[in-house]
TrEMBL record:
Shikimate dehydrogenase substrate binding N-terminal domain: residues covered: 6-87
GO molecular function, one term: shikimate 3-dehydrogenase (NADP+) activity
Pathway entry: Metabolic intermediate biosynthesis; chorismate biosynthesis; chorismate from D-erythrose 4-phosphate and phosphoenolpyruvate: step 4/7
InterPro entries: Aminoacid_DH-like_N_sf, NAD(P)-bd_dom_sf, Shikimate_DH-bd_N, Shikimate_DH_fam
Protein name stated in the entry: Shikimate dehydrogenase
GO biological process: aromatic amino acid family biosynthetic process; chorismate biosynthetic process; shikimate metabolic process
Species the sequence originates in: Cochleicola gelatinilyticus
SUPFAM superfamilies, sorted: Aminoacid dehydrogenase-like, N-terminal domain, NAD(P)-binding Rossmann-fold domains
Pfam families: Shikimate_dh_N (PF08501)
Superkingdom per UniProt: Bacteria
GO cellular component term of the entry, any: cytosol
UniProt entry tagged with the keyword Protease: no
The keyword Acyltransferase is assigned to this record: no
Length: 243
């Protein structure tokens, strides 16, 4: 019986545990999936050593970047992205990191093509945003990051004008703002500049309809949450673990 799991912080809401538990039940597998809520990423090694038959792990906020130094190998695409969300564990406890977020996002985004323009704003600069940027670059989008702190290559939330919002038709929330239980939170963008030409993509999946999406929908934009992206990336993780 193989064992799999998710490492992160405050992950009781996890999609992954439900997804894989249902998968194992439907396929009459005796495998199991567990949440490993870690206060510190350095505790990863303890889990790997103590848990018998552990074959693979998913990685979520806030450890997608912090986990990199703890891995024995990192697959080329994950290395380019600079973030890992899937770990394959060998029989001798060697850890290899992969990124399936970029695959999941690309597949989910393709369901909404064509867009009004190949332009995008990425809200947040964490591990998930790196996978999103990797996909947008591959698809030849013109994109900008948005964060609270100013850098030469991004906007701050306060800088978002009507012109900037109208220029960028895809807005992706890669922050945790709005995640259960803090469902009243939302990224501080000027929603009054959103139009029917926009697509708002929220990587959050719990709740299914975040305040970010509600505000975009009220302005006529197309909206989608992160559920399909997670399904696609989970299926890719499964292939990696069993290859």
């Amino acid at each position: 019986m193989a064992k799999y799991g998710l490492i992160g912080k405050n992950i009781s809401y996890s999609f992954s545990k439900t997804f894989f538990s249902i998968k194992f039940e439907n396929e009459k597998r005796k495998d199991s999936y567990h949440n490993f809520d870690l206060e510190n990423i350095d505790l990863l090694q303890d889990i790997v050593l103590k848990e018998e038959n552990l074959k693979g792990l998913n990685v979520t906020i806030p450890y997608k970047e912090l986990v990199l130094p703890l891995l024995d190998n990192v697959e080329k695409e994950a290395e380019k992205i600079g973030a890992v969300n899937t770990i394959k564990i060998s029989r001798n406890k060697k850890l290899t990191g992969y990124n399936t977020d970029h695959y999941g996002f690309a597949k989910a985004l393709a369901m909404f093509f064509p867009l009004h323009k190949k332009t995008a704003l990425i809200l947040g600069t964490g591990g998930a945003s790196k996978a999103v940027a990797y996909v947008l670059k591959t698809l030849e989008f013109d994109y900008k990051f948005v964060s609270r702190t100013k850098t030469p290559n991004n906007y701050t939330y306060k800088e978002l004008t009507r012109e900037i919002m109208h220029k960028h038709c895809l807005v992706i929330n890669c922050t945790p703002l709005g995640t259960f239980p803090n469902i009243q939170d939302f990224p501080d963008i000027p929603y009054h500049f959103i139009t029917e030409n926009h697509l708002l993509f929220d990587l959050i999946y719990n709740p299914r309809e975040t305040e970010f999406l509600k505000r975009g929908f009220a302005k006529g934009a197309r909206v989608t949450n992160g559920l399909k992206m997670l399904e696609f990336q989970a299926k890719r993780s499964w292939k990696i673990w069993n290859s």
